[in-house]
Write a structure and sequence with these properties.
- The structure is a single chain.
- The protein is 43% helix and 13% strand.
- It is α/β, with parallel strands linked by helices.
- The chain has seven domains: 233 residues, no CATH class; 241 residues, no CATH class; 170 residues, no CATH class; 58 residues, no CATH class; 138 residues, 3-Layer(aba) Sandwich (Rossmann fold); 125 residues, no CATH class; 120 residues, no CATH class.
- A nine-stranded mixed β-sheet has the order 18-17-14-19-20-22-21-23-24. Strands 1-8-7-6-5-4-3 form a seven-stranded mixed β-sheet, with helices on both faces. A four-stranded antiparallel β-sheet has the order 26-34-30-32, with no helix packed on it.
- The radius of gyration is 36 Å and the shape is globular.
- 40% of the residues are buried.
Length: 1258
């Protein structure tokens, strides 16, 4: 009988790792070494010698030349990372089962366990080793593997044990012998904690039996033993976001085949058309050539949407076509892998190869005559050639509008070859990297076949050649990178989307279930409530409740958030026990999420689910039920719950593709239960989910979300129920004609809405109608035909005509305004969030990662944003507006979850947004600081979870300090702080209540720095616009003065931010050419010759005077000549320095023109830095060397203590001593004087000992 805390290998390994392939060569080595190891086991051997065979087996099979395996102290041996043991192994001899020293299944209270506890404590306490992964006890046959997190929780965090251990080690017990620790300290504790000590157990004699069987099935089971010993498992190398790791080799070579390259632009990487080594055989160049030579661009409507200039349009159109084709090809590659897996690795189901498809014409045939046509309607020649390929009924395989107006893939030249990428994955006959050229299409197929697109195949774990896995998540990442080349979007890692979807959807589920039980407050409450029910009708009802959730991503990109939301909704249903089959029965399989990937395992065996046909080619009934249930559950959720909008049509294409792929994963063969061997099976067709993902500018709408739709409904022939019905019918339409007919009706309804809403909501439209009526009645009616108009009547008529024409022109211009070209009408685009009267209800979750586009790039829509968004400020980046939009789109008590740059939390431009958010319920703020959450993009991300109009007062704040974790949820639970909403005042001081109270005390008892500086102010260092021209070194200075003595008059000493130290400046003999406005450059010929070299760059500056050689205007030049306190803009510690003489500074500094030594001492104090850490923007973790942005808006709020002259003098005198010491020796020890200054400042504020501890971080 299996014990409660005892796991099998299968239960201990992540499912994604269980199904990962193993190369034949490394697996054969494992088997060989395992047989050799088992042959060396000798029960008569002394215990001391038992460790050597274990060590040799692990070293020679897995860790040779990678990790040291050695003893440490009394530890038998350990696997090391660097100089730290991370896997601790205690070996016992393979004696009879009565050996009292060895742990046993059902009895862990033995010496081996006490030893492991002792070794663990020694490593954690004496060596501060926080990197231990596992602890192992073995008698060579039996293995007990304990996760170090269990030991951390049960032993290291046990205060009584730590006290007893410390006293024993300090010889404060009756004995310091190990025997006392084992028997008197460890033994009773292990006896108490044994029910909580989870472990993995296996016996290698079972593995030996599998080796002897020597079958594929036995090897698949034996692979679990391989994996439990592997570094991937024992060293916990499986990355937290493994499913979404970019395969760079695949990505770069795919770019090459397309004809693109990744280049660096201003510190960022972006995708562009190749500039060098352009190859006409690439897909992009082949496409561009045909677009150009056949003048295809002139056939495209709204060509301006592809760019302003011809070259931009050509590139963008060609790229969209290439992405369309690659979408289909990669989708088909996944389908091919799926079909091969379904049919137990039958190679006849492979079709993306040159044997089936020789050229682009046949590929076009595959798209439009095979995938888009039911099998019963295909021509005989198509059936003969593509017999195994199913009909999918997806608009993915209908020619797009762009294809119809430009070209299709069949139009590409077939004969062109492409030079193979220099670091290609392809090998030649000698198993060396291929060199030379290949036909482009053939190259593409061979390239794709070099990767594994069928990674969930559990039938063939051991493979001859292990290929890198390419799954839907990886493809999404790749296309996001290709597609985000200019729109500021970044692919959101899986651990982020998984966490955000989990938190927001579980809150939403709790809110939805209040309709069943009003007292429900949390998801745990929902679980407790639902588990009381078991009848089919109840399970269906609860399932439908989850289906009623509406999720929207208004900047959907590649659709990663929607895919994560889909997975999370399925996992939620499974956890609640309401994931049911067609008959209303709960599935006997568990659906969960690992690394942002949906995992389906049997509830009792933990075996991964795999839909495989029987050997007679028919699906087993049990598997059919599960596959069918998963497909239709996904279908219902995608059709009814998931919605997205993106300004980029290519993103919309990719998002739709991702959702189709998710459905494809659980596609099933149609069967009536009578299917027999040899019968032709059809795959379940895919629904038309594309209508839920729309292209448009989410932020711009002609009509307000509250605009009255009632009057418009009375003016058209359809009601909301009919509109909603047409949309639902479209999703399930099975032929092109029906789909196109329904789309036409839907577009007509939306067009009528636009016209009618405008009539009732735009006063200009109402006025125009009134003018038209007045003109007709007064001047065009029959009563005026009998006589002529008087001059007075003519004037009045002309006045009406002029006003009418002016308004008509104004409305036409507004209608055609560039701002509204891509406007998205939230008011009626999604009938699923409208009630039967047409009232806007709203979404339950709005989630996403808005594009990071700087405010300088959105000038065209700023007037619109100013008039329509209360969070508007002229310097706000685009992402700010998505918060307000999200809140508008939500129904009350619903969840907004966004990941954005954290800069708005402190920046002045974020004030309006902070005010808006604090009107609602802030649930979570998860700040990642400088951590590289997004590859190759330093965005300082933060997750914000908000409940619209919620009223709970507290929130969770977490400062994530490392990305080295397996589960973000666990990290936040362990480090998150519960804060009160009052922390979110003007400055958003995200700290515990004691810190907030202390900050308020400092503000109350001090005065702000801006008020303190009555006769001066904080000023900025100099901006030159081009430092390379104006900053010079000592050598250049001497050269210029030698050439012309006059140069000396305009060369001045310069310090930069990095030169500023604490109290003093570490001057590095750098100089500034000070050509102020009015300087006659002809008087300084050497200077002019020097600057002439940079003339074109200097002329292009915005920061310049009237002439190209002049610096910009500055009204405080004289302040650089006298005493001042200077500090860098960005610093990780207090670095306020004093400069008594002439010294200029660059724009990486601020300075205060003053000789106030009291202020200088205060600015360098612990208290001042403590305050600044709480209110400044932080780059990184301020408690671990993170840098602060000491912007003036923060510095001016710094509270300065109110002091009497004598108190100020006490500090000033100490500062003078510090300055004197620093002048003699920059490395002088000033710690005693600084401590005295800190104590004086603490006394000035009457701080308590506890408050001092807070400031000093104790």
């Amino acid at each position: 009988m299996k014990l409660i805390q005892q796991q099998t290998i299968q239960e201990s390994l992540s499912v994604s790792y269980q199904i990962e392939k193993i190369g034949e060569t490394e697996f054969d080595l494992f088997k060989k070494n395992l047989v050799e190891y088992l042959s060396k086991i000798n029960p008569a051997e002394h215990e001391e010698n038992a460790k050597y065979p274990v060590r040799d087996f692990l070293r020679d099979t897995f860790f040779k030349d990678k990790n040291e395996i050695n003893t440490k102290g009394r530890i038998d041996f350990a696997i090391y990372e660097g100089d730290q043991p991370v896997v601790i192994i205690e070996t016992k001899r393979a004696s009879a089962k009565t050996d009292p020293d060895m742990v046993r299944a059902g009895n862990l209270n033995a010496k081996a366990m006490y030893q492991l506890v002792l070794y663990f404590l020694e490593e954690r306490i004496q060596h501060n080793n926080i990197n231990i992964k596992y602890l192992v006890a073995t008698n060579m046959h039996e293995w007990f593997v304990f996760d170090a997190t269990i030991f951390e929780k049960l032993f290291f965090k046990n205060k009584t044990l730590i006290k007893d251990y410390s006293e024993w080690r300090a010889k404060a017990k009756v004995s310091s012998d190990r025997d006392l620790f084992y028997k008197q300290i460890a033994k009773p504790l292990v006896a108490e904690l044994e029910p909580q000590l989870a472990y993995t157990y296996f016996d290698l004699r079972d593995a030996e039996k599998l080796i002897k069987k020597n079958t594929k099935e036995a090897d698949n089971k034996l692979a679990l033993y391989f994996k439990v010993f592997s570094p991937r498992h024992l060293l916990k190398e499986i990355a937290r976001n493994d499913s979404n790791q970019l395969n760079k080799e695949f990505y770069i070579e795919l770019l090459h085949i397309i004809g693109l390259e990744e280049i660096k632009d201003g510190g960022k990487k972006r995708i562009d058309r190749k500039k060098k080594d352009v190859d006409e055989g690439s897909l992009l160049e082949n496409t561009i050539n045909i677009l150009q030579t056949r003048s295809k661009l002139q056939n495209i409507d709204n060509l301006h949407q592809y760019g302003e200039k011809g070259e931009d349009q050509l590139f963008s159109v060609a790229l969209e076509l290439c992405i369309t084709w690659l979408n289909r090809i990669l989708f088909l590659k996944l389908l091919e892998g799926q079909l091969i897996t379904f049919h137990r690795n039958d190679p006849s189901y492979a079709f993306l190869n040159t044997g089936k498809i020789a050229d682009f014409d046949e590929l076009d045939e595959l798209f439009f005559e095979v995938l888009a046509v039911p099998q019963s309607k295909r021509s005989a020649s198509v059936v003969k050639k593509f017999g195994n390929i199913p009909y999918l009924n997806s608009s993915l395989f209908e020619a797009s509008t762009l294809e119809n107006s430009s070209l299709r893939i069949a139009d590409l030249k077939d004969r062109l070859d492409l030079t193979v990428y220099s670091s290609t994955v392809l090998k030649d006959n000698s198993d060396k990297r291929f060199k030379g050229k290949k036909n482009t299409l053939h190259y593409l197929f061979e390239f794709l076949n070099a990767y594994d697109f069928a990674s969930e195949d559990t039938e063939n774990i051991v493979v001859k050649t292990k290929k890198d896995v390419i799954n839907a998540s990886v493809l999404g990442l790749i296309f996001e990178k290709i597609n985000g080349y200019k729109d500021g979007s970044f692919f959101t890692p899986g651990f982020i989307t998984e966490y955000m979807c989990r938190e927001s959807l579980r809150r939403s589920v709790a809110e939805k279930f209040k309709v069943h039980e009003p007292s429900i407050e949390s998801f745990d409450d929902v679980k407790s409530y639902v588990h009381k029910f078991y009848k089919k009708e109840d399970l269906k009802k609860f399932n439908q409740t989850v289906n009623s959730i509406k999720v929207c991503d208004p900047a959907v990109g590649s659709g990663h958030f929607l895919v994560s939301a889909l997975n999370e909704l399925l996992a939620i249903k499974s956890e609640l026990g309401i994931l049911i089959d067609a008959e209303g029965q709960p599935l006997e399989y568990l659906v969960k999420i690992e690394n942002d990937t949906l995992i389906v395992t049997h509830r009792s065996t933990n075996e991964p689910f795999n839909y495989l046909l029987d050997k007679d080619g028919t699906p087993p009934i049990a598997l059919q039920k599960v596959q069918q249930a998963l497909f239709h559950e996904k279908q219902k959720l995608i059709e009814g719950c998931l919605f997205g909008v993106d300004i980029n049509p290519k993103s919309v294409m990719i998002c739709r593709l991702r959702l189709w792929i998710e459905l494809l994963k659980h596609a099933y063969y149609l069967t009536d239960g009578k299917t027999k061997k040899g019968d032709s099976l059809e795959l379940q067709t895919l629904p038309n989910i594309d209508i839920n993902i729309k292209a448009g500018n989410s932020l711009v709408s002609r009509f307000d979300i509250k605009a009255d739709l009632g009057k418009a409904l009375r003016s058209i022939k359809y009601n909301i129920n009919q509109y909603r019905g047409f949309v639902n019918d479209y999703k399930n339409a099975n032929d092109k004609e029906t789909k196109h007919g329904l789309l036409k009706i839907i577009d007509q309804i939306k067009s009528q809405f636009r016209t009618e809403i405008a009539k009732y909501t735009d006063p200009r439209v109402l006025r125009l109608q009134k003018l038209s009526e007045e003109l007709y009645l007064k001047y065009q009616g029959t009563q005026l035909f009998d006589g002529k108009l008087s001059e007075e009547q003519k004037k009045k008529r002309q006045k009406l005509v002029d006003e009418h024409d002016k308004l008509a022109t104004e409305l036409e211009e507004a209608k055609n305004s560039k701002i509204y070209q891509n406007a998205f009408e939230w008011r009626f685009e999604f009938p699923e969030v409208l009630d039967d009267k047409g009232e806007y209800i709203g979404f339950d979750v709005v989630i996403g990662n808005p594009p990071y586009i700087r405010q300088e790039s959105i000038k065209e829509i700023k007037p619109y944003l100013k008039n329509n968004y209360e969070v508007f400020t002229g310097t706000a980046d685009l992402l700010i507006y998505f918060f307000e939009l999200g809140l508008k789109l939500l129904r009350n008590q619903s969840s907004l979850s966004m990941i954005v740059s954290n800069k708005f939390m402190k920046a002045d431009y974020g004030h309006n947004l902070r005010s808006l958010l604090t009107k609602h319920q802030m649930d979570e703020i998860i700040d990642f600081g400088e951590l590289p959450v997004f590859d190759e993009a330093s965005t300082f991300p933060v997750i914000l979870n908000v409940t619209k109009n919620g009223d709970k007062p507290g929130l969770t704040f977490a400062q994530v300090k490392s990305l080295d974790f397996v589960n973000l949820n666990d990290i936040i639970e362990s480090i998150g702080s519960k804060l009160k909403k009052k922390s979110l005042q003007k400055d958003w001081i995200l700290a515990e209540e004691s810190n907030v109270a202390l900050i308020e005390k400092l503000k109350t008892e001090g005065i702000s720095l801006s008020d303190y500086l009555t006769e001066t102010k904080i000023v900025y260092g100099l901006k030159t616009g081009y430092n390379d021209a104006f900053f010079i070194d000592e050598e250049t200075k001497s050269k210029l003065i030698t050439e012309d003595k006059n140069s000396e008059k305009v060369i001045v000493p310069l310090a930069v931010g990095d030169d500023i130290r604490r109290y003093n400046i570490d001057y590095s003999k750098r100089y500034l050419i000070l050509t102020k406005i009015g300087v006659d450059i002809k008087s300084y010929p050497a200077i002019k010759n020097h600057l002439d070299r940079f003339k074109s760059r200097l002329e292009a500056r915005s920061d310049k005077g009237k002439y190209w050689w002049e610096l910009r205007a500055c009204d405080y030049y004289e302040s650089f000549l006298s005493a001042k306190i200077v500090y860098p803009i960005i610093a990780k510690e207090a670095r306020f320095a004093f400069s008594a003489d002439e010294m200029y500074f660059n724009d990486k500094t601020f300075f205060i023109p003053t000789k106030d030594f009291f202020l200088l001492g205060y600015l360098n104090s612990k208290l001042a830095w403590y305050y600044l850490k709480k209110i400044c923007s932080v780059l990184g973790d301020p408690e671990k060397g993170g840098r602060l942005e000491l912007r003036t808006i923060y510095m001016e709020t710094l509270p300065v203590p109110k002091v009497k002259p004598q108190q100020a003098k006490e500090i000033a005198q100490r500062v003078e001593k510090i300055l004197a010491l620093k002048k003699k020796d920059q490395t002088a020890d000033i710690s005693v004087l600084e401590d005295e200054i800190d104590q004086i400042i603490y006394n000035l504020y009457n701080l308590t000992p506890d408050e001092v501890k807070i400031i000093e971080g104790k």
